[in-house]
């Protein structure tokens, strides 16, 4: 079952065809139970990923202001072990970053084996905000699409599992969220006058996103168009996509871990054998506490 539209090959798309307020046949209360279960499975899968050290996971989050990138990160992270998970947020490039090619700062933040990294905005800003504000020509954008596809293929060839989510909200929903920020004391800190200004470019963003999603969807780095007007449905859609993508790797990771376990046991047995040969009865001195023990004695 999938709740977000998955694009895994180049195509022409119109965002009008994807309803931001879609909720399938689901309701909020039943979904809460499903989401909790998916969270548990995600937690287990992440543990296998972390231990097996053979793959990494890159989650790219894109969407207009207020589309729910921060909320999604909080939701996904909540079911993961923080030791195995990083978030990288990409803002307006610093002078040093802007002095390099657009992928320079991105590549430094990609996940090493065993880790999950969530990108809060990404290299896609360089073919979105820059294009909307005419900071780059269409020619440059076209070249960047090719660079992006090659870059993502490089990561995939190095065993990075990539999922890219576009959080699709409607223009009305954005207005409601911006107004809510203004009215809610606890949300007001998130207010940015720039968000209202960017809103005027809604149509330009829509068309830039249509180009991006259609041009950079590949089998190795698919896009998911997530109906994001309802936060619970957005979370359901993303958790489902993540679990369904990672689940097939579990067998592979289990086998790797079994092999690793057997190797470690063999090493230990070998150590004990040679220890036994050189130091008969070489037991740890009694009396002290095992330094590795965390058990309280009282
Ligand atoms: P926020 O995600 O609300 O913290 O805002 C970050 C801001 O940085 C957004 O307005 C982005 O459009 C902007 N930004 C991120 N990456 C780039 C980039 N490569 N070029 C220009 N602006 C960017
Ligand atoms: Mg913002």
What does this structure look like?
The protein has eleven helices and six strands. The chain is an alpha/beta fold and 298 residues long. It has one domain (5-253): Rossmann fold, CATH 3.40.50.300. The model is unreliable at 285-298 (pLDDT under 50). The structure holds adenosine monophosphate and magnesium ion.
Q: In the CATH hierarchy, what is the superfamily?
A: P-loop containing nucleotide triphosphate hydrolases
Reported for the largest beta sheet, the result is: 6 strands, mixed
Helical content band? 40-55%
- Shape estimate: globular
Radius of gyration: 23 Å
CATH class value: Alpha Beta
Count of DSSP strands: 6
Strand portion, in percent? 5-15%
Order of helices and strands: EHEHEHHEHHEHHHEHH
The SS-based structural class is alpha/beta
- Using the 3D structure, state the CATH architecture: 3-Layer(aba) Sandwich
Mean pLDDT over the full residue set = 93
Distance between the termini: 52 Å
Query: What name does the CATH topology carry?
Result: Rossmann fold
Number of domains: 1
Ligand set? adenosine monophosphate, magnesium ion
Number of helices: 11
Q: What low-confidence regions span 5 or more consecutive residues with pLDDT below 50? A: 285-298
Biggest sheet strand order reads 1-6-5-2-4-3
